[in-house]
Amino acid sequence: MTSPTPVKQPPAAERVYGHVKQGVLERRYEGGTLLTEGELAEAVGVSRTPVREALLRLEAEGLIKLYPKKGALVLPVSAQEIADVVETRLLVEEHAARKAVPASPGLIERLEQLLARQREQAVAGDYAAAAVTDRCFHAEIVRSGGNEILSRLYDQLRDRQLRMGVAVMHSHPDRIAKTLAEHEELLGALRSGDAEAAVAVVGRHVGWFSHLARGEVR
Q1: pLDDT tens-digit readout, 75-123
Q2: What gap in Å lies between CA 123 and CA 141, rounded to an integer?
């Protein structure tokens, strides 16, 4: 009887990168938290060398700021970052909503499945998973347009969107019900082939974050 083939683990730096990034996106590592190389090396079970490599990569992505001999500071989500993400999302998503009409049966089915999944996650209080599904819902509409360059541009916003989404769901738990209602409204507009209604829902839905950035949402 042959012994099972051992599962090959990703390189050490990749494991540290994934551990820290997931922690930041899911808010286990809040903005303002100072992470040390020693703590991370112990948490992941690696030496300090791959930790430094992973932290340099995360700094380049704008999630942390390195301080020599001290560690890595998890950067808070700033009002400017929210405003920049909202502006870019509106440009891409309003265009995508208009282009998605007439929506294919395949697109409608995928959006229905994602909405059902997000509703279940919201009921379970799993905000990190609900934020991922929320992002998938919007990305599906963007991808439906078939513009690879636009889809790649949108994908570059992924981590910032997820982090903002989880933060908002925790600080505004009442927002999840509104999000689900607006997703249902957007899906209805796409089903009925009403491009202008779809664009209007996207503008209202995504634009809410800009009010948050200006401190107009309590």
Answers
A1: 888 878 888 889 999 999 999 999 999 999 999 999 999 999 999 999 9
A2: 24
DSSP-derived 3-state class of residue 159: helix
Q: Which amino acid is at 160?
A: R
CA distances (Å), origin 39, targets 34, 45, 75 = 10, 10, 18
Separation in Å, CA 18 to CA 40, 58, 124? 11, 10, 25
- CA–CA distances in Å: residue 84 to residues 91, 179, 211: 11, 20, 13
SS3 36: coil
The pLDDT of residue 206 is above 60: yes
How many C-beta atoms surround the C-beta of residue 202 within 10 A? 24
For 152-194, how does the pLDDT look when each residue is reduced to its tens digit (9 = 90+)? 999 988 888 888 877 777 777 788 899 999 999 999 999 999 9
Q: Give CA separation, 54 vs 2, 32, 48, 91, 94, in Å.
A: 36, 19, 10, 32, 36
d(CA 179, CA 205): 7
Q: What region does 68 belong to: left with phi over 0, alpha with psi -120 to 50, or beta?
A: beta
Whole-prediction pTM: 0.77
Contact 157, 88 (CB under 8 A): yes
Round to whole Å and give the CA distance between 92 and 22.
26
168 versus 150: which is more confidently predicted? Answer: 150
Look at residue 126 and tell me whether its pLDDT is greater than 50.
Answer: yes
Strand runs (DSSP E) across the chain, as ranges? 34-35, 64-67, 71-74
